Amino acid sequence: MTLAIALGLGAVIGVLLGLLGGGGSILAVPALVFGLGLGIEQAIPISLIVVGLASAVGALPKVRARQVEWRLAAVFAATGIPATFAGSAVGRLLPERALLIGFAVVMVVAGVRMLVDRDETGTSCATGGSGINWRRCFPRSVPAGLAVGFLTGLFGVGGGFLIIPVLVLMLGIEMSVAVGTSLVIIVANSAAGLVSHMSGTSIDWAITAAFAGTAIAGSLIAGYFGTRMDTDRLQRWFAYLVFAVAAYVLVDAVFLR
């Protein structure tokens, strides 16, 4: 029965990932905690596996199309990976209730980001061609990389809802390149987060394989057929779902634990 639930929840998360990009992964931890009854210390590493694998699959076509800004990805990874270990260390010191409350806040931020128009771009870091104005980009990239890495280690989220706005609105990177770059960053941070959470945590590999397998399959299928759907409207409704789940997580953490 547990495996069947894992298969179903993984498929739902995967479909959302395929239709919306990285935003769907924000529901992975709540699905594992409230849908499968896992403790958050078990849910976070499983979420990181799912997020990392799904992002790697999504990144492959972007890499082939050369829609990745590798130098910015390297800056985010270089700052994000140490911050991921720091976030994991902080998470081990916090009670589960505090982690769930913090996760609910992160979900609200992610939902708000989904409702904000992201088509506009900010002041570009590009100097023409493939050049990057590092004097302008570096001071903005470092704190963003630290923040995303810390959240990845603390809550097991990919952080795409933060990376994309930074790349597009703060650094002026074209959306298609920002998505590819974000996926590469998520893969690096998720791998670091998984390593940092492996010590002292037992992972149910059967549940992980079921959840991750159907998530990736659902993501690929939804990504193929998703071009026919009104993704803007779907994203708005998904943001409302995220708000509802965040409210449930908050109520559970404050009143039921």
From TrEMBL:
Keywords: Cell membrane, Membrane, Transmembrane, Transmembrane helix
Domain of life: Bacteria
Segments traversing the membrane: 44-60, 72-91, 97-116, 144-171, 177-196, 203-225, 237-256
Cellular localization per UniProt: Cell membrane; Membrane
Membrane topology field: Multi-pass membrane protein
Pfam families named in the record: TauE
Protein name (record): Probable membrane transporter protein
Biological source species: Rhodococcus chondri
